[in-house]
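Explain my protein.
***
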Amino acid sequence: MASGAAGSAEGPGPGDAARAPEQALFPPGFSVSEIKNKQRRHFMFLRWKQQQRKASSVTGICRAAFNLLFPANQSDVCLIQEKLANKKKRRKEREALGDKAPPKPVPKTIENQRVYDETTVDPNDEEVAFDESTDEFAPYFNRQTVPKILITTSDRPRGRTVRFCEQLSTIIPNSHVYYRRGLALKRIIPQCISRDFTDLIVINEDRKIPNGLVLSHLPDGPTAHFRMSSVRLRKEIKRKGKEPTEHQPEVILNNFTTRLGHSIGRMFASLFPHDPQFIGRQVATFHNQRDYIFFRFHRYIFKSEKKVGIQELGPRFTLKLRSLQKGTFDSKFGEYEWIHKHREMDTSRRKFHL
């Protein structure tokens, strides 16, 4: 009895610890601001936000299911029953009409309710065709130049940025990775031009995470500055395929409809060779949606004569255009064609620029 009492006084035993419920990641009185280390405080804040997001999503699902099963009052019950009856009625009418049934109404989305942009490009416009035949990318589209890309980083890049540049070089054919070693871009650009590079890509980082991309077309520009987010390396992608091969990929440019978007699309297209090697079955996709450019790299697989599957190879990232500058990179005296001004341009959710 004495030994048992002493054991209980000292604390719970191993069996009690196994049966004890798992403690929360953050106690109720936890405050992130009490952590003095800046990086540790930022890391713990991200974990706290992730926990809050999970809790709110689970709570929302439970609340929606509860409201559906146990409505608050009789009017809610009548409304739900009316919606279900109307849906059932419409389904029976469509089945009765068969092929003569009217088309389903298109749901309203931000994309199809987009505010019309007067700079939207018409493929048959003679003025657009003339501008394309005389712009900085005309030598590439006339097959007078072969893309040769230099990929570099900000000063003293960390491991994640270095790995991202290495994986980016496996996607873009004829690309070379070099490190800055403290050189300014104004000194790097003339050296690139003398070595017949056609494009320069600079990956910037903040707190060891890639957060910016500068793309400069050589030798006469233009230069685009993008904000980069949602970077995922190959090892971080679930159900990914095998490593990409050295075949030249196909390129898909989707939804670049305005004059500005057309210029950005031509800039991305000039990074890749003209003749893709279809035997490699690799596709690089730049998909523009609400002015966010989503990049994905896939390999497609023919499962049968009618079914095709895709495997993501990685990496993946998202770009947001911040500015487009005439000529090569010049932070002091450069002339800008377009600059994203948040307060002036983002007045409507249905207004897009690309």
The two ends are 79 Å apart (CA to CA).
